Amino acid sequence: MENIKQLAIIGSTASGKTSLAVKVAKQLHAYILSLDSLSIYKEIDIVSAKPSKEEQDGVQHFGIGCIYPNEDFDVTTFIKLYNEVVTKCLKENKNLVIVGGTGFYLKMLIEGVSELPKISEKSKKETREYLLDLPKAYKLLQSLDPEYMSKIESNDAYRIEKALNIYFESKMIPSEYFSNNPPIPTIKSPLPIYQIEWDRDILRKRIAERSKMMIEDGLIDEICMLEQKYTRKPNCMKAIGIKETLAYLDGVYSKEVMIEKITTNTARLAKRQKTFNNSQFDNVVKGSVEELENILLS
Predict the structure, then answer these.
(1) CATH fold of 121-180
(2) For residues 11 and 293, is the Cβ–Cβ distance under 8 A?
(3) 229, exposed or middle or buried, with CB in 10 Å at 0-12, 13-18, 19+?
(4) Which residues, including other chains, have CB under 8 Å from residue 175's CB and lie 6 or more apart?
C-alpha cells in the first residue's frame, strides 16, 4: 500500500463530496471508493443520491451498486471491498480517494475490526432458539456480560444475535472474545482526511432542494418498485427517504408533508454525521468545498 497515495473526503449528506472527489481523483490519477450505506445497493438510485454516470465524469467508482436490497452486509463488506480496490490500484498504478458520509466505515478501516469465529450450524440453531424470545435472550447476555450488553439496546436483534453466536461458538462471553481477538487496522499508514463544512442553515436549504429534486426525478416510482420487488422487510427499506415515501403511499402523509419529513430527517442525519466525524477523527483538515478544493488541487 506504500505504492499508492490515498486520502479521504468526508462530510454531511448533500455537502458536495462527490463533485470534489471527482476533481481530486482526476488530478491524482485515482479511483474513488464510496463509503455510503445506501449507495452500495443496486436499484436504490434516486433516494441514495447515487452519482450518475455523468457525475462520475469518467472516474471509476467502487462501492456503488454492489449488492441487491435483500442482501445483508456489514462493515466487513466494506473492508473486503477496500482490500480489493487497493489491489486493483496497485496493479493498475492508480491512487485512491475514499469518499462518503458513513464515517463509521472509515473509522473501522482505520481502527480495524475483530475477526469473528466461523459459526457452526449447531451454534446457529441455539441462537435461533433463543431469538424466539428476544427479551429472554437479552437478559441472558446481560447477566453473563453486563459491560458488553450495556452498549446494546434490548430490541437490537442483529447485535443480540451476533453476541449469542459468539458466546455459543467460542464458549466465551463477547467481552472476553474481543479482548482475546483485538481489532486489526486495515489502513495502517497515515490517512489524510478532509472534511467539508457548511453553515447549518445553508446546508438545510441544499437538503430541501435535493429532496424536491428527488421527487421530480421519480423517487415515488422508485420506492414503489423497491417495495413490490423486495417488500418492506430489508433494513435498507427503513432508510431516510424510503420510510417517508412509504408513509405517503400508505396515506399517512401528504406529498408536501412527505418532502418536509425527508428534509427534516436528512438534516438531522447531517447533524449526527458531523458530530460523529468531529468526535472520531483527529488531524482533519476542515473547510468549505472551495477551500478544500484549493488545498487539494493546488
Answers:
(1) Histone, subunit A (1.10.20)
(2) no
(3) exposed
(4) 145, 147, 148
